[in-house]
Amino acid sequence: MTESPHFPPLLKGEAVPRHTDPFDKAVSQAIAGVDSGTIFYSEAGDVLRAALVLAPETPLEEAIQAVYVAQIGLAESLGALAPPEVPVFFQWPDRIKVNGAVCGGVRYAADVSDPGAQPNWLVIGIDVPFIPVSDEPGKNPNQTCLFEEGCGEIEPMALLESWSKHTLLWLTYLMDSGFERVHNEWRPRCDDLGKEIDQPRPGIFVGLDEKGRMLVRQGVMTETVSLIEFAEHT
Q1: Per residue in 12-25, pLDDT tens?
Q2: What is the distance in angstroms between the CA of the first residue and the CA of the last residue of the chain?
Q3: For residue 18, what pLDDT is reported?
Q4: DSSP state, residue 190
Q5: What is the 3-state secondary structure (H, E, C) of 94-161?
Q6: Handedness of CA 73, 75, 78, 82 (dihedral sign)
Q7: What is the pTM of this model?
Q8: For the BPL/LPL catalytic domain, which residue ranges apply (predicted)?
Q9: Is 103's pLDDT higher than 70?
């Protein structure tokens, strides 16, 4: 039997039944008024699925910056648990890349979509595959899992524990210091920064602005794209 994960102060965990999506459970419980800081998680051994409920005290355009925090938390956790030669990067807005291939990501939802409105809740979920989804190795060369990247020793619950600690730490930084520190930590790990991209807009991804919006330059025009556009609708 898997030992229950230990969470840092201010956070608490609740396991969900095996065939229940922790993200869906977190959203339904957030609507019902569950405590901020509750993490719903699956104990499945082939993938880590977990979702954190937050009760932001800022407008959505600031609260949504916690999505970057969750990514940093995941990268730092993998950095701590994986072999040192395994590089972890981000692909905007929500993918995690290990050794250059997508290895899960984050998803998020709130009860408002207006950037200036204060959400009652924000749910941020993570999804990290541990073993191959397909029986055919190399079938999807742009997709990977931790086992294929030499991280077979990592246990899902150990990664969950580590993610919760690193994410709480960076949430504290975000609340105390604003977005700049989070941005400075996130930027060097962004795989498509400075590159020509097709999605979500064609152009060169030149960086993030002070609100965490993507800056895409096409010729002399620079357009902003918010994480809010990629939130899941409830």
Answers
A1: 999 999 889 999 99
A2: 34
A3: 85
A4: B
A5: CEEEECCEEEEEEEEEECCCCCCCCCCCEEEEEEEECCCCCCCCCCCCCECCCHHHCCCCCCHHHHHH
A6: negative
A7: 0.94
A8: 7-187
A9: yes
Confidence of residue 149 (pLDDT cuts 50, 70, 90): confident
**Sorting pLDDT into bands at 50, 70 and 90, what band is 4?**
confident
Helix (H) or strand (E) holding 90: strand 88-91
Q: Which of 3, 9, 227 is nearest to 115 (CA)?
A: 227
The values of phi and psi at residue 85, to 5°, are -85, 0
Q: Which fold has domain 12-192?
A: BirA Bifunctional Protein; domain 2 (3.30.930)
Read off the tokens for 133: 């989804």
For the chain, domain boundaries: 12-192
Cα–Cα dist 160/18, whole Å: 16
Rounded to 10 degrees, the C-alpha dihedral 212/71/174/197 comes to -10
